[in-house]
Amino acid sequence: MNNRYIAIAIAALAASGCAWAQSADDLLSQGREAFMNYEFDKASRLYAQAKKKVRKSDEYYADKHEAFNRQLMNARNFLERVEQIAVIDSLTVPRNDFFKSYRLPQSAGSLGDKSALPPKADGADVNYVFTNEGEDYKIWAQPDTTGYMHLVESIRMTDGNWGTPTPAGDNLSEESDAIFPFMMADGVTLYYASNNEDESIGGYDIMVATRDAADGSFLQPSNLGFPYNSPFDDYLLAIDELNGVGWWATDRNQLDDELTVYVFVTNDLRKNYPVDEEDIIGFARIDDYIATQPEDADYDELLATIRAIDPTVQKRKSEFDFPAPGGKIYHNYEELPNMASRATMRKYVAAEADLSDAKKALGELRRKYAESRSQSLGSKIEQAETLIDTKREEVKRLRNEVYKSLAR
Question: I need a labelling partner for 271 at 20 to 30 A (CA). Which of 5, 14, 155, 204 fits?
Answer without folding.
Answer: 204
